Amino acid sequence: MTNRICFFLLLVLISSCKDKPSEEKKPDQVFEEPMETFDSVPLEKPEPQKTFLTFEGLADTTFVRLADFSDGFAYDLRYATENNFLKEKVYDCAECYTRVKTAKALIAANSDFHDQGVRIKFFDCYRPNSVQYKMWEIVSNPQYVANPDKGSIHNKGGAVDITLETLEGEELDMGTDFDFFGKRAYHDMTDLPQNILDNRKLLKETMEQHGFWSIRTEWWHYNLSAGSNDKVADFKWECD
Ligand SMILES: [Zn+2]
């Protein structure tokens, strides 16, 4: 009997020592989700939303800074640098101001240009009459600088000197640089490569559709028709 009991107990012991099937069964294959990579997307802080001023309540003749109303323009304000035909900097800082009516027409024209993949780039905008005197002192020749006593439409806030560049910032070929005084800059100079004629045509036709007129000898200069009768001004903008 004792032996039997012993044998039974031994059996019980052996069976209880058997490995229990593991509850944490390892899968044959381990699928790991590939890590998402963002090689081509650098982490950038979101740009703060730009807010622009509106023309509401402003008189048509008020002087405004174009960049306060739109960020769709490009600027290369040459008279705030020495890179101009005077070889002198005549503005304390580079700002583009015009009267409200000119600004409105420019924004409307620029919207049309954007639809065609280009935008206006400014060389000069409103020019205070005192700066006209400064320019006259450097070059006293009415062929190149308007007589400050009479003033120019730039002094009235109704003229701009512009070209076009692509939305990626590449300037369109207009055949000459800004302030090139010679026949090649004339609108009636047609002995030019077709792409230059096309670029000038795009600039001129679009500006004319928005109330601007051009002068024969400078492809870059545009006057707002409604700005010719405004007074010559000497409003000066602030520089930081
Ligand atoms: Zn001009």
From TrEMBL:
Zn(2+) binds at H154, D161, H221. CDD domains: D-Ala-D-Ala_dipeptidase_Aad (cd14840). It catalyses: D-alanyl-D-alanine + H2O = 2 D-alanine. Signal peptide: none annotated. The active site is at E218 (proton donor/acceptor). It holds the Pfam family Peptidase_M15. Coiled coil: none annotated. Gene3D superfamilies: 3.30.1380.10. The keyword Protease applies. Binds 1 zinc ion per subunit. Its cofactor is Zn(2+). PANTHER family: D-ALANYL-D-ALANINE DIPEPTIDASE. Belongs to the peptidase M15D family. Catalyzes hydrolysis of the D-alanyl-D-alanine dipeptide. HAMAP family: A_A_dipeptidase. This is D-alanyl-D-alanine dipeptidase. The lineage of its organism: Bacteria, Pseudomonadati, Bacteroidota, Flavobacteriia, Flavobacteriales.
